[in-house]
Specification:
This protein has 110 residues and is α+β, with helices and mostly antiparallel strands. The chain has 3 helices and 4 strands. The chain has a 4-stranded antiparallel β-sheet with strand order 1-2-4-3.
Length: 110
């Protein structure tokens, strides 16, 4: 009955049977979490180097930030001081990084 991001046991969730055009490499769980949030609650700027994830819960964004920072550090990806800001009553994780965007494109993210 409409869109929700809250699930409970025995709920049905629609997922694609197969995703084409994406890499066959194993992908780090930290990156999977980041991409999941970016796709569901995120925004990519027109110039392509700025990524944002919106969330009511600041602690959730802090965990996402910690994961993507450690992933980038482990993979020699330069990110420019990710920050969490509050606008009105919502928080956003803001990342500016050509290096990260290029990395995502190499993996097949469009």
């Amino acid at each position: 009955q409409g869109w929700t991001n809250t699930f409970k046991e025995n709920d049905y969730i629609l997922v694609p049977k197969k995703i084409t055009g994406f890499t066959q490499k194993k992908i780090d769980l930290r990156l999977i979490k980041f991409l999941s949030w970016l796709i569901s609650e995120g925004y990519e700027s027109i110039n392509g180097n700025r990524l944002r994830i919106y969330q009511n819960n600041r602690k959730t964004l802090e965990l996402i930030k910690k994961d993507i920072e450690s992933y980038c550090l482990d993979n020699n990806i330069i990110i420019n001081k990710p920050s969490i800001k509050k606008t009105r009553d919502i928080f956003s994780l803001q990342i500016t990084s050509k290096s990260l965007v290029d990395h995502l494109k190499e993996l097949g993210y469009k």
